[in-house]
Every structure is written in structure tokens, then in C-alpha cells.
Amino acid sequence: MCRNIERFSLYNQNHPTAAVKLLLAATIQWLLYFIFSPIHLMKSSFFAAPLAVLLVMAAELPAAQAQALRPATNQPVERARIRQGVSSGELTRPEAARLRAREANITATKQAARADGVVTPTERRVVRGEERRTSRAIYRQKHDGQVR
Q1: Which of 53, 69, 85 is the last residue of a domain?
Q2: CB count, 10 Å around CB of 78?
Q3: Residue 105: which of 66, 137, 143, 61 has the closest Cα?
Q4: Are 103 and 131 in contact (CB under 8 A)?
Q5: Which of 80, 91, 104, 114 could form a disulfide with 85 if both were Cys (CB 3.0 to 4.6 A apart)?
Q6: How many domains does the chain have?
């Protein structure tokens, strides 16, 4: 158990859910070992510390998973900006189609990043860069003087 914990620190930023799951598994394994060991006269203090650790980690697991799986998103706002540009005539239909395709590309990139269950900092940086570039493209297309 100790070797597993040393390999994956609880504060490993690249894979927070993997570290939490590993610690949960190690704690459960330790508890099961002592529950089913031939020594039946153990003191309750043997169970108090691992049980407390297990409860704390179980409470933090959903938060770690949510943090790991959710890159920042502005897509609903960007879609609304595209719709507004089309309705006001600031965007032509081909411009709007290209911008929607860029939004679809961002969605595909996010799904690929989430596929393994952990969004790495590099994946998050790529998604945010695409979102920033798309936002600038929407602004430029809306203010380029073309009208429908």
C-alpha cells in the first residue's frame, strides 16, 4: 500500500482522480486486510484513522472528478453571438457557417480531451486557445463591414 501511495501523490495535478482513486483503493484494501485477518481482537483505533481517511477521500472524489473533466467553456455565449450577428445582418450566412464549424471543432476537441477521464493542462490550454481564437474571429467577422 505504501509503495502505491508514494508513486501517486494526492496532489498530482496531471491525474487528480487517478491519485484519489488509488488512495481509496489502498485504504479499502488495508481495511479489508484487517477486518478479515485472523487476529480478531484488534483495537478500534486501527479502524478509526483509515475510516476517517476513507470518508474524507470519498467526499472529495466528486469534486476532483468535476475539476478534472470540466475545461472552461464559453460556447453558449459564442453561439448566441453568432445568432445575434446573423439576425442583425452583421454576419453573412457563409461567415456564420464557418464560425459554427469552428464551434463544432471546439466541441470535438473537448470530447477527445474528456475521453480518458482526465483533462490535462495541455489539453485545457489547447481548448482555451481555440475558444479565444474563435471569439476573436466572431468579433472580426461581425465588424468587417460586410452586410447581408
Answers
A1: 69
A2: 20
A3: 137
A4: no
A5: 91
A6: 2
Query: DSSP H helical segments within 39-146, as ranges?
Result: 45-69, 75-88, 93-114, 121-142
DSSP 115: T
Do the Cβ atoms of 90 and 143 come closer than 8 Å? yes
Provide the residue type at 43 as one letter.
Answer: K
Q: Is residue 85 part of a domain?
A: yes
Query: Last residue of some domain: 21, 42, 69?
Result: 69
Q: What are the pLDDT tens digits along the chain (148 aa)?
A: 444 444 444 444 556 666 677 777 777 777 667 666 655 445 555 556 666 666 667 666 665 555 544 555 678 889 999 999 999 999 999 999 999 999 999 999 999 999 988 899 999 999 999 999 999 999 999 998 887 7
Longest dimension (CA), the chain: 83
Which cell numbers hold the place of 23?
A: 488512495
The answer to whether residue 27 is domain-embedded is yes
Question: Is the CB of residue 14 less than 8 Å from the CB of residue 121?
Answer: yes
**48 assigned to some structural domain:** yes
Give the Cα separation of 130 and 123 in Å (integer). Answer: 11
Range of the domain at 27: 2-69
Length of the chain: 148
Interatomic CA distance for residues 26 and 21, integer angstroms: 9
